[in-house]
Amino acid sequence: QVQLVESGGGLVQAGGSLRLSCAASGRTFSNYAMGWFRQAPGKEREFVAGMRWSGGSTRYADSVKGRFTISRDNAKDTVYLQMNSLRPEDTAVYYCNTDPAIHDYWGRGTQVTVSS
Question: Which residues in 97-111 are b (16+ Cβ under 10 Å) and which e?
Fold first, then answer.
């Protein structure tokens, strides 16, 4: 059974930092690009950051460029999202998935709340 489990969310003040982790189990994702997505209350889920698993090339939503960094540890089948200079508008549930996303792989996500 394939599982992607997100962790590392929490409550932080504006300007603060958090590091999210996404642990994969049930299969290896070495042949897939991986991504982070988020869904704020009342809004659709949106793409945040993506990374080719083997090549290392990355892409980001314009709203997070220069503040967020996606990385991965192939040996641990884990993807990370370092989030700096957080803003209240970054408040959302954050999910990881393949990029583009595969419906069956959505996990529960991790809540990030940024207070002003």
Answer: bbbebeeebebebbe
